[in-house]
Amino acid sequence: MRIATWNVNSVTPRVPRLLPWLDQRQPDVVCLQETKLSAEAFGELLGDELASRGYEFAHNGQGQWNGVALLSKVGLDDVRHGLLDGPGYPQADGPQEARAISALCGSGDEQVRVYSIYVPNGREVESDHYHYKLAWLAKLRADVEPHVATSLICGDVNIAPTDADVFDPASYVGHTHVTAPEREALGAIEAQGMADVVRRRWPDQRVFSYWDYRAGMFHKDLGMRIDLILAGESVTPRVRAAWVDRQSRKGTKPSDHAAVVVDLDVAPDGDVGPMVPPPSNPARRGAGKVKLPQAAD
């Protein structure tokens, strides 16, 4: 079973890239984030194309913001929109944003609960949105706990797990995505028995999944690894390959994220990682401080 996750940063302009990518990579299960469509609009845009390729789909959308989806050729059962008792924003007791969807995929002993998640960004350290992010992660941990061994959490977690997961740690000091509370919240989910399968497979390699659109950052490999696949204890031993499909970030009108791919039981392309293809002109790590997009002027 091939599982992939991809923050497409608005699915409508990405359709000319998404459909050929599905045909090329042939994933069995796809987790999409930032679809930025309502459920009705998602179905109108992609329903026929997905059906012709053998995919069922489920979508949790809210129009122009957020939005997550699951596409599956191997079943899509017990679909759950959102998190159990998940927080709202800006009011904690308000409606949940469209940031999570999960379902059972596969069959028999191979069945897993797959989550497609889009963790809140956090915006600025100690802001209301930052505390919302931490609360959201705590609810994700509680949601997955009853079936953690047979779960896959896939998506944009908006956290670089360690300093090795950013191009230059000094550039990120004082910003979200790298603070101790964020990393501890992610670590609490992993501590339940979930493995970061890309990092587990490539412990010492430079691996990123997101590159800002500014000229040169992608080609210089000045990125972050914030798109993860976490596998429960029963799923992790089945991993045969885990890699970032850097090709999905190349070319015309790309998302600023690349797809992340994990193969269970069989690896059709072999053990091809960590990034496919590798960057051709990477800048030396820490070579000159780069101003981040969220940095104050």
TrEMBL record:
Residues 257-274 have a biased composition (Low complexity). Mg(2+) binds at N7, E34, D156, N158, D256, H257. Residues 245-297 are annotated as: Disordered. SUPFAM superfamilies: DNase I-like (SSF56219). Its EC number is 3.1.11.2. It comes from the Bacteria. The record marks H257 as: Interaction with DNA substrate. Keywords: Hydrolase, Magnesium, Manganese, Metal-binding. GO terms for biological process: DNA repair. Residues 4-257 form the Endonuclease/exonuclease/phosphatase domain. Pfam families: Exo_endo_phos (PF03372). It is an enzyme of class 3 (hydrolase). Belongs to the DNA repair enzymes AP/ExoA family. PANTHER family: EXODEOXYRIBONUCLEASE III. This is Exodeoxyribonuclease III. It comes from Gordonia asplenii.
